[in-house]
Here is the input.
Amino acid sequence: MAACRSVGCLFSQRVQPKGESMVYQYHEPIRKKVSAGTGGRKRKFRDKKLAHMGGGFTATKVNAEEDRYVKRGRGGTTKVKARRAGFVNVLMEGKTKKAKIISVVESHNPQYARQNIITRGAILNTEVGKVRVTNRVGQDGIVNGILVK
Here is the structure.
């Protein structure tokens, strides 16, 4: 940290207002100069907009009872999001079968596997065998997968 005392380096660090939790900046500040060699600095293109923020992560957990909710988006579009899932639609030998989810075996984040949070690409332990999730569960409201041999 001793080498990181310049003003430009401070902007890339986390900002913590007094008495509040850690806040991350929405954008990296522009630190480039104008390429014409005038010594001037570039200005930002436009202000930040709430529409560019995106939504929060829906941590879909394994549970016997399924729970879904509808989220309204911009322009009145709706998304069905799954809070809890108990079954997966498994594609095997060209046919689809509904199988009960037992647990999450493997995920891109080891903490998600430990907490039984289902994400795309996660390996699930089901009653028909191991299944890899092929869809984005938090955005589709349903779990689809293919059988892993």
About this structure: The two ends are 49 Å apart (CA to CA). The chain has a mean pLDDT of 82. Residues 129 and 147 are 7 Å apart (CA to CA).
